Amino acid sequence: MAPDADRLAAFRRCETAEEYFQTLDVAYDPRVVAVNRLHILRHFAAAVARIDAEHASTDARTAAYREALAASYEAFTTATALDHRLFKVLADRAPRAFVELDTITVESGEKA
Fold first, then answer.
1. Tens of pLDDT, residue by residue, the chain (112 residues)
2. Measured between alpha carbons, how far is 65 from 93 in angstroms, rounded to an integer?
3. What domain count does the chain have?
4. What is the reported pLDDT for 43?
5. Is residue 109 part of a domain?
6. Residue 84: its pLDDT value, please?
7. Which residues have CB under 8 Å from 77's CB, separation 6+?
8. Nearest by Cα to 41 from 69, 63, 19
9. Which of 22, 48, 85, 101 has the greatest count of CB atoms below 10 A from its CB?
10. Which helix (H) or strand (E) holds 5?
């Protein structure tokens, strides 16, 4: 395992999801990453922005990145991209409460 300063420098050079997993030493299933790559990275990017704002030390930042990547990966092993709706195209297609008029019935409280 590389010292945290070296790992942080390597982290900054990562270009693929697999490189992030390898650099941060987070176990992953390549099949899950192949299907959810963009969603995992989008989820992770939001966490990275928070981590950068909250942690000044290299050690704390590296540990937080590792935890955030593991959590982002886990989010897509237990739910789908449609469940998370991280991208606008999916958020715009969110289910809406809609009831067709012809499915509504009215019952009278009166007895015949």
1. 457 788 889 999 999 999 999 999 999 999 999 988 888 998 899 899 999 999 888 889 999 999 999 999 998 887 665 554 554 544 455 556 566 777 777 777 666 5
2. 31
3. 1
4. 85
5. no
6. 46
7. 29, 32
8. 69
9. 48
10. helix 4-13
C-alpha span between 97 and 15 (Å, rounded)? 40
Residue 111 located in a structural domain: no
In a domain, 21, yes or no: yes
Residue 110 lies in a domain: no
Domain range enclosing 85: 4-103
* Residues contacting 38, CB < 8 A, separation 6+: 87
